[in-house]
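Reproducibility note. Readers wishing to regenerate the assembly model reported in the main text can use the exact inputs given here. Chain order matters: entities are listed in the order in which they were concatenated for prediction.
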Amino acid sequence: MDAPRLPFPRASVLEISPWYTGLADRSALVRVRTPAGDPAWLVTRYAEAKQLWADPLLGRSHPSPEQASRVSDAGVMAGPLNEFDTEQAHHAIFRRLLTPAFSARRMNDLATLITTLVRESIEEMTGGAEHGTADLQRHVSMPLPVFVICRLLGVPFADRYYFKDLSARLATLAGEDPGIAYAELREYVGRIAEAKRTDPGEDLISDLVAAQQEYPGYLTGEQLTGIVAGLLFAGHETTLNAISYGTLALLSNPAAKQRLIAHPETVDEVVEEILRLNASGGIGILRYAHADIEVGEQLIRRGEAVILYSALVDRDPRAYPDAERFAPSKRASTHLGFGHGGYFCIGASLARLELRGVFGQLFRRLPTLTLAAAPEELTPRDERLTGGIERLPVSW
Ligand code: HEM
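Running the prediction on these inputs yields the following structure tokens for the assembly.
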């Protein structure tokens, strides 16, 4: 049989494609083709995905990049990244540089800001009206993560709307050439970095400017921009999608919503269940085998592409009973929504804070909140690598 080609069709933005289930029943590793038509292994089950996520023999770079399978012919993250020979060393430096920005102390400082930003964004959405209809994604999911990243980076808070627009321009795969937005980001980050050199703060750009002396060959202005763009890419759309998905999931599951309202102390379980089932779209994370790897009976050969997709493997009935149902409980905290192993999401604690901020307040402030469109009517954002939906109309 011909290997099926991604992306697979799905019925609703709350679900993944039913095609996946059939493949998972067949085998833990299945031959598929990427949207560009290139071969890849799709990992369909939880245990094997966890094993492979942690395997240092899988990387983002490729031993012979010109022969690598690609997801598409254009766009970021569409093929191999970084240099095969230096990937591990550079990745270790990258993690070391970024870790202090996510320390418990800095997260503590951000927690208060997040509570305020969530309150303000809900107030802005309702405009003080007792009843109304609005796009929750535009007013809440979209601004919150980028404003928080501004503070994390040390971008002046007055620039936050400019920064939000720049981030949106960088993320789109259609319309304006993202290269133009990238050049603008480089100039902007350069200016902020200069200012931090003489007037450092408790923020990531100040950390990076201070570290430039330690890694002179590594942290050029170009790399600094790359790190900022990478953070925007990794931390904005992902969190935005999780907020919108979570709202949608709770509004479509009245029992779960009622439980959260009656027992606000269960908000962490709700957040973990959102992260487990988050089906924002996209096709998953691409890796390449740096050596032959055995997974059960199957051999992945050096250079072959592997796709790890948490929305699929976190629905594996071998890992979770009644896996497809949105039912917050203690079980979800083992999910792979933030990946696993050496690439585990650096921003996980921040993302959790933001989701806790939103779902700790949203239904308390707007107990009558409902969807103003059926999930089937919502338009998926297929032109985005990270998927998601165009709008989330709600009424209160
Ligand atoms: C709900 C929101 C989020 C989700 C679902 C998410 C998910 C993930 C996943 C699955 C990975 C692993 C990628 C891989 O294996 O290659 C990852 C990595 C990463 N995430 Fe997140 N993320 C979220 C929020 C954030 C935030 C808020 C930030 C920072 C502001 C962030 C920064 C990063 C970075 C820098 C990496 C790369 C780590 C590395 O290369 O070692 N993420 N994220």
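We highlight two features of this model. The two ends are 50 Å apart (CA to CA). The mean pLDDT is 92.
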